[in-house]
Amino acid sequence: MTxxxxxxxxxxxxxxxxxxxxxxxxxELKRILQQVGFxxxxxxxxxxxxxxxxxxxxxxxxxxxxxxxIFPNRVHIEVDDEGPGIPDLELAFQEGYSTAPPHIREMGxxxxxxxxxxxxxxxxxEIDTRVGEGTKVIMDFFLNPS
Amino acid sequence: xxxxxxxxxxEEKCKGCTxxxxxxxxxxxxxxxxxxxxxxxxxxxxxxxxxxxxxxxKYAQTDSLEALQEFRYTIALPAPAFYAQFKFTIPLGKxxxxxxxxxxxxxxxxxxxxxxxxxxxxxxxxxxxLVLPVISSACPAxxxxxxxKFPSLLDNLLPLDSPLGVAAKIARLGALKKGYRPEEVGVxxxxxxxxxxxxxxxxxKGLGRIDGAISMASIYARLVSELHLVEDIPDLQxxxxxxxxxxxxxxxxxxLGEGEYMAVDGIHNVISVFEKIEVxxxxxxxxxxxxxxxxxxxxxxxxxxxxxxxxxNVNHLMKKxxxxxxxxxxxxxxxxxxxxFARERVYEAKEVMKLDRDFQKAMEKYxxxxxxxxxxxxxxxxxxxxxxxxxxxxxxxxxxxxxxxxPFLLRDNMLELAKEIYALASKVPQTMSxxxxxxxxxxxxxxxxxx
Lengths: 146, 451
Ligand code: SF4
Ligand code: SF4
Known about the structure:
The structure holds two protein chains of two kinds. Chain A is an alpha+beta fold.
């Protein structure tokens, strides 16, 4: 990644289909950002994107690992999952397109925003997906985007 | 900056039982030296600790009726929830006249303020630059909660004054118009809760000044025995169902008419909804009514009536007073220009959750907290006086507590110490070498033989 050392590292497992604990990882991340003292608007966009990524694992995948590296002036997040992957990435990026299966959408989850929201909130987004294997989401957030 | 708040501890009654520390939504309480201490910066005055304390050691500081003496012309502002304390068959004209009997010169219903404010909120919601959902600013405990715990939602807070603020200003304008000088007019709120006492204290010196907040329970106690002697003056009652409904959860959003509105009550429920808003889950909701008390203001800690019974009263009153008395657009414009809807105090992040002003130091502190947490038992038992193991770890790192406040760590430390003592005791002075080693408990097969 870089040679600069992150001050805080967070690594958490996410279980697919576990709606009870869904959101826990992003809450934890939020607490860290708040306690460390990142400006609230910055924390908010990191947390929104992190939550989307976390929920994607819960909704679609079997299991995943959430990792965050917190630097003094940026946050780097990687979410790796084992799952079905995203068949048509370009389509999935369109606003309003839901990657969630219909029965989940009916429950009000994953209604459309997913990827496009992650893109909006982050300064860099990279998605590597393999159908039938899984998806890796990489996001960067810079405190003072240069 | 001066910190006001209205929830206090009666040291005599406090047994240091730790019930309150776990209920507090902002982790503002610690038990130190056997007594619960409130961190004023974190306290939202929500009253949860008053509710949970089995020893009734927490109380809300309010003003007494004596304060009326200081003014030539006094106005009572009864909270909508005040009406719900009485059986709905009692005419509100009687209740309001009862307030006059207690010495007030005039009554101005906060329910009326609520109706007028509702119209301004509807107008505000038509703006295009809103940060959604707009969060109601009517409950001061919720406003404070956002400032302390949800700084990223500050822009969601409705930038208009509360029904109390609006009522206070319109009432004062009326008195000034009658010819009284500002210092002669005393405006008093009949309050359901400590949070509103704090709001009154922070109301400043201007038009919105609220000179005192008198507990609803104390006024009720004064009135209930003599209400049958009081005449019903129907004209005192101006507010209709829209304003009266604000007494309970849901009333506020109903008064706004049709729309994508929601209502949440109870501070812990409010927290869970705000967490959803923070992660962007509440898309589509335009307005969020949020109240710290379960049931809304009828659930305030200074209410006497059971909140569920009070709600029944509210519903009946809403039917009984199903009127709406409009006001003119001119009046509205005058109020607007006079600043009736403007907030006295700007919202600000309290930043009490930050570990340090210095970023680098905050990060280091965070790491130290994590390390310490690994050694704490994770039982959140509260015996240390902090609400959770994490809170203790934070306190230790902030220099406000010691590791050994945790009885488990203390025990571990004692065990270590005991081992050292044992080892030391096993050592025999050089001059005594070879003598009486067993007598002092030291044997080479003992647990500390390695030393
Ligand atoms: S009033 Fe509420 S915020 Fe304040 S100490 Fe009590 S429980 Fe905590
Ligand atoms: S809900 Fe009403 S009674 Fe309860 S704290 Fe808020 S304003 Fe006070």
